[in-house]
Amino acid sequence: MNNTNRWKTSEVVLMGLFAALTVVGTSIRVPLPALVGNPFFHFGLPILSLAVLTLGFFKGSLAGGIGFAIFDVLNGFAVEAPYFILESFVVGAVLSYAFLRLKRYEQKAWFIPLVMFIAALAKIMMTFLKNFVIQLALGSSASIAAVASFSTLYITVINALAAIIIVTLLYRPVSHLTKKMLYK
């Protein structure tokens, strides 16, 4: 039986590499003060984004999600691991959709920053919704939950802006290297 949907070994290797880089990138963190949780600046989002842009939606999101889950389990955030897998797929879907819709402008200098800006908005919305639901579950009123959740968004905005800059700088070389590896 010939299965044409098999993943190539090089794709699996790259998925493992991006998962490992996500763990390492998220481990390089700078704690930041906030009213909700214990947020920190890290390099996970740029690595997830590069994985999605080079491996495609499913494989890139899976690699990033696995990397975030491993990080969470190893660092005492195991209860949040399923959420970050889901978030990887949501952000990956938005990123892939924006990339495909705007692909005709791929050679323009603003292409990757715009695609990343759209993905960053998805990340910010997911973070707000997660924190809002957590605050509601803790018994806060909707208005207090919204204010508390909004107050932590500056951290996500910092991470998102860093991701836009990092991915803009690294997309072309990383894409070139992965295409070379995948399609030799």
UniProtKB/TrEMBL annotation:
Q: What Gene3D superfamilies would the database entry show? A: 1.10.1760.20
Q: What keywords tag this UniProt record?
A: Membrane, Transmembrane, Transmembrane helix
List the transmembrane segments: 12-32, 44-71, 83-102, 109-129, 141-171
Q: What is this protein called?
A: ECF transporter S component
Record the organism: Vagococcus lutrae
Short name of one Pfam family for this protein? ECF-ribofla_trS
| InterPro entries referenced in this protein's UniProt entry, alphabetically | ECF_substrate-spec-like
> Superkingdom of this entry's organism?
Bacteria
- GO CC aspect terms: membrane
